[in-house]
Amino acid sequence: MHVPPLDPERERAILDATLELLSEMGYDRMSVDQIAKRAKASKATIYRRWTGKPELVVDVICRRFDMDTPAAADTGSLRGDLAGVLGGLCGAVERKHGLIMGLSSTLVSHQELARTLREHMPAKDLGGVDALLERARKRGELPGPVDPGRLFGVAEALVWHRMIFLGPLFDESFVAESVDEVLLPLVRAWAQQT
């Protein structure tokens, strides 16, 4: 049976209410009743569009998080380009700190939500990272190709580790140390292997 889409304004109100409640009280304490009340919508309206709370939360995550990699400006050097990408990633994570922290523990304890998120998460556009690696090769900074997904995965891991275990202090020294001590040595080693 085909379910007609919601009015865009009504859908936005429901997604906004979900995001607000996630940030305020977390996944566990949030209910569809509360979302409906905050959005001034009926539960029936929500259930016509989403099968349950996990699907609604995943929709919010997929629509409201920056899924693409930060723009990779051409600074003239591989180091500068990597610092720009890592700095952009830090900024994106810092802007969504409260929601991300609330969801990170939830994704570990709620396998249904984690599975639904994995099934619906759009693929990242790594074109910017690929372009910066190609520029570095053309400048002679890298002897061979490097997988942009592998590089971005390590960059994300550094940012997540910092946020979860040390706190979201994403200053210039964090970016510089991460680039100089982790990303540059790894990228150069990977480029040697090809």
In helices, the fraction of residues equals over 70%
Report strand %.
under 5%
Low-confidence stretches: none
What is the overall pLDDT average? 86
Count of helical regions: 10
Shape: elongated
Calculate Rg over CA atoms.
20 Å
Any overview of this molecule?
This protein is an all-alpha fold and about 190 residues long. It has helices at about 10-30, 30-40, 45-50, 55-65, 80-95, 95-110, 110-120, 125-140, 150-165, 170-190. Helix 4 packs across helix 7 (about 110-120) and helix 6 (about 95-110) crosses helix 7 (about 110-120). The termini are far apart. The mean pLDDT is about 85.
Quick overview:
The protein is mostly helical and 194 residues long.
Please describe the structure with a list of short key phrases separated by commas or semicolons:
mainly alpha; 73% helix; 0% strand; elongated
Fold topology:
Layout: H1 8-29, H2 32-39, H3 43-49, H4 53-64, H5 78-95, H6 97-109, H7 111-120, H8 127-138, H9 148-166, H10 172-192
